[in-house]
Amino acid sequence: MLTNFADMSDVDCVIVGAGISGLIAARRLADTGLSTIVFDKGRSVGGRLATRRIGKARLDHGAQFITARSEVFSAQLADWRQRGLATIWCHGFESDDGHPRWIGVNGMNSLAKDLAEGLDVRVDHRVFSTTWEGSEWLVTCDDARSVTASTLILTAPVPQSFSFVFEMVETLPRELWTADHDRTIALLATLDGPSALTGAGARHEPSDDIAFVVDHAVKGISPIPAMTMNTSPQWSERFWDAPADEVEVALSELIAPFLGSAQIVEQQVKKWRFATPRATWSTPCWSDSDFQIVVAGDAFGGPRVEGAFLSGVAASETITEWCKRRQ
Ligand SMILES: Cc1cc2nc3c(=O)[nH]c(=O)nc-3n(C[C@H](O)[C@H](O)[C@H](O)COP(=O)(O)OP(=O)(O)OC[C@H]3O[C@@H](n4cnc5c(N)ncnc54)[C@H](O)[C@@H]3O)c2cc1C
Fold first, then answer.
1. Ligand 1 atom at minimal distance to the Cα of residue 164
2. Of 21, 175, 209, 256, whose CB count within 10 A is highest?
3. What's the whole-model pTM score?
4. Residue with the nearest Cα to atom 38 of ligand 1?
5. Centre of ligand 1 from the C-alpha of residue 304, in Å
6. Lowest mean pLDDT among 114-118, 198-202, 248-252
7. Both 154 and 264 in a single domain?
C-alpha cells in the first residue's frame, strides 16, 4: 500500500537525481519561488561529482576537474572561487594550453553540496515509479512512500530514467532511451609516500588502457598521497564482469608505473556503469508539455560537468515557463 510522505505536501516539481543537473535545476526553481523535492538513490548528493575519504586521504573518483566555455557556468565557477570553494588546479596536464581546469577545494563533491544547501533533497531515496495521473505526477520511492507534483524532471542517466516512465510517455524518442554509455572502472589507492606523478600531478590518456591518473596530494585536496586511476572505456568493458580479485590484480599492474617507490596502503574499486554518454542529444533537454515532464542531464548538454549544469538550467527554464502559463 502506498502512503504519502508525512512531512511532504504536493509540490510544483519533483526532481529525480541530485547530480549537478538536478541540483542546479532545483536551485533555480526554488529561486523563482517554486516548491521542489529532489530524490537521489545515493548516500550523498553529487552523483558523478563524487569524493570519497579513505582514512586521512580525500579522493575524487568521478569527475576530476571542470572546464567552462559558457558565460553562465563561468559565472557559477567565479561565485565558487569568490567563496573559497573552487580553485584553478592547472592549465593543462602534458603542456600548458591556457585553459583553466577547476576543482573543488574540498573535493568535487563539495560543489554539489553547496548547490544543495537549503533545498529539500532526500538522499537514500530511490525513485521506483512515476505515474502520470492526467494532471499531476505520482512519484513513488522504493520504500513505497509517494508524493504528487505538477511537473517532473528526470536527471538520472537516460536508460535508468526510462525504466520508470516508458509506459507513460510514449513520445520519448527511442534513440534517446537506447543511447548507450561508456563504463569506467576506477581504482582508488592511498600510498605510503609521494607518487611518481610530477607537474600538476596527473596524466591524461597516458595509454590505451588508462583514461586519467591523478595524485590528490599534488592536486591539493588530500593531506596524504592518494591516487585515482580511471581506466579507459575499452579496458572497463573488457574487465566489467571479471571476478573482483582478477580486476584488482589487473588494476595493480596498470597503476604500478605511476607509484615510483611508494607502496599502496589501501585500495578500493569503483565501477561507473553510466560513466559517459556516447552521444549528445541535439537540444539541452527533452520535454513534453502534455505530460509536464523534462528529461535532462549530461546526455543533453554534453558529457561533462558543464554540459550537465547547462542541461539542468534549461530544464528549470522549461518548468518555470509551464508554471507561469498555468497561473
Ligand atoms: C569516472 C568519471 C570521470 C569524469 N571526469 C570528468 C571530468 O574530469 N570533467 C568533467 O567535466 N566531467 C567528467 N565526467 C562527467 C561528469 O561527471 C558528468 O557529466 C556529470 O557529473 C553528470 O551530471 P548529471 O547530473 O547529468 O548526472 P549524475 O551526476 O549521474 O546524477 C544523476 C543522479 O541520479 C541518481 N539516480 C539514478 N537513478 C535514480 C533513481 N531511480 N532514484 C533516485 N535517484 C536516482 C544517481 O544516484 C545520481 O546521483 C566524468 C564522469 C565519470 C564517471
1. 41
2. 21
3. 0.96
4. 156
5. 9
6. 198-202
7. no
